[in-house]
Amino acid sequence: MKNVIKKAWPLVVAAVLAVAMLIFYGVTLSKDNNLGITEENLADGATVYGSAGAGMAFDSGRMTAWNVSEKGAEAVVDFGQEREINALLLNETGYNVKQFSVYYENGGEWELCYRQCEIGVDRLATFYPVTTKKIKVVIDDFKNTVRISDIAVYNLQARENNDFRVSTYIRPEHIGQGLIDPDCFDIVTDVQFIAYGNFDPEGNVVPVEGADEALKGLKDMIGNRDVSITVTVFPVREGATMADVYRDHMDNAVQSIVNLVEKLDVDGADFDWEYPRGSEEWALYSEFIVRLGEELHKTGKELSIALSPWGVNLSQEAIDSIDQLQIMAYDMFDYKGDNNSYSGATACAAEYFISCGFAPEQLNLGISFYGRPNDGSGVWVNYRDENYTQDEYIMYQNGVWFNTVTTVRDKTAYAALRGLGGIMIFSQDEDLPVADPLSLTAQIGKAIDMFVKEA
Question: 205-207 and 109-116 as β-strands: parallel, antiparallel, unpaired?
Fold first, then answer.
């Protein structure tokens, strides 16, 4: 009997592990990142051919997969009739894909409509609508054997959102320097004027040199467009910590910002204390936010704050007092060293704050307009840097990763489908002119036209 048990035990363990894996992948690969996609999966019922096993990625079974062990493996989807498509949702077990491409048939020729450097879980891939009978997905490069569990094909429709925001950060020193294209304000809805000033040790706001003149210049650039302005206040520079200010001068800190907003005739205040440490500092910050929000809201003004998606410990009362949270969803290095990849800097960032108690409509998903080296070193390179050539799909040059118009479109589409409040840009001076086809701001506007509509 003991021998029987010994022989059967490995089988039992294997069975338990198999069930656990089924449960794990059934849970993690079935939520589509809460995008609420209800449109028909156009791959259902289509004919799939190509590399061995390609059809397993389109069979609607998450436990079956297309296993890829050769570069250039392809899956062709034949709809049997002309269909309009603008998106794919792909799932990979693991993060092994290093580049994949999507083509559509046009007049008997294959034309590229999408290319990116990762898949992972619930990878939303969006492109301008195409009408075609066939599409082709190609796995161009990978690091280990790839297992594609699911690919869905959609013609996604715009979601209703009357107040989808495009919030951008602009510095006083960049006004009047030719770095801000005035046409960006045809797309931008909110400006965070960073940094108007800092607190002093007693909780008074001290403007940076030239801030008031620069603010006037900003208002002149905006003109009669419906763009809100909030002034960003940074923590105290020297002589005290923010905890000291809140502990000893809370009343003055709150009132100084309220007075500043009224004096400058702006729409609110944005605060950027990114990394409180310990429960006491978070408690002090929460109290400050509650009290400041209460005072600003009395006069119809807004409160915005910026935070990174980790270690947040605000009280629910403080969270409820915030009108806009600017998610710093960048500098989130993945296994490639990409600081703003889709997998690390989109759904993961937004879902983190929702788990903290924020409502989706409070959240602006941050997109960096700069690149970082894949070694994570302290180098920040403007997207428009003349030493770098912009690319529509994947921009990785000299060891530096950037967002592109493709990743910006995907992230904006995600924000719209997820019901977030909007997108945040850091920072506006780093973009190309809006008229340039590779302008990131322009791409945000185009993505909004595709995926957002008013009720």
Answer: unpaired
H/E run at residue 410 = helix 405-418
Tell me the residue ranges of DSSP E strands in 314-412.
Answer: 324-327, 363-368, 370-373, 381-382, 395-397, 400-402
Integer CA distances (angstroms), 12 to 17, 18, 175, 184, 256, in order: 9, 10, 68, 62, 67
**Quick one: 241 exposed, middle or buried, by C-beta within 10 A (0-12, 13-18, 19+)?**
middle
What is the per-residue pLDDT across 166-223, written as a single tens digit (0 to 9) for each?
999 999 999 999 999 999 999 999 999 999 999 999 999 999 999 999 999 999 999 9
Q: The tokens 């994947």 sit on which residue? A: 394
Q: CB–CB of 84/156 below 8 Å?
A: no
Distant-in-sequence, close-in-space partners of 419: CB < 8 Å, separation ≥ 6: 36, 159, 161, 360, 361
Residue with tokens 């763009």: 227
∠ CA 48-115-416, nearest 5°, is 95
CB 151 within 8 A of CB 88: yes
Residue count of the chain: 455
Closest to 409 (Cα-Cα) out of 346, 359, 363? 346
Closest alpha carbon to 31 in 341, 351, 345, 344: 351
Query: Which bin fits 349, alpha (ψ -120 to 50), beta or left (φ > 0)?
Result: alpha
441: left (phi over 0), alpha (psi -120 to 50) or beta: alpha
Tell me the C-alpha distance between 315 and 18, whole Å. Answer: 41
**Phi, psi dihedrals of residue 33, rounded to the nearest 5°:** 55, 30
53 backbone φψ class: left, alpha, beta (φ>0; ψ -120 to 50): left
Which amino acid is it at 183? D
Token pair in block for residue 73: 């493996």
In 3D space, the residue among 204, 215, 142, 206 whose CA is nearest the CA of residue 175 turns out to be: 215
pTM of the model: 0.92
Return d(Cα 197, Cα 192) in angstroms, integer: 12
The secondary element (H helix, E strand) that includes residue 259 is helix 242-264
pLDDT in tens, 344-393: 899 999 999 999 999 999 999 999 999 999 999 999 999 999 999 999 99
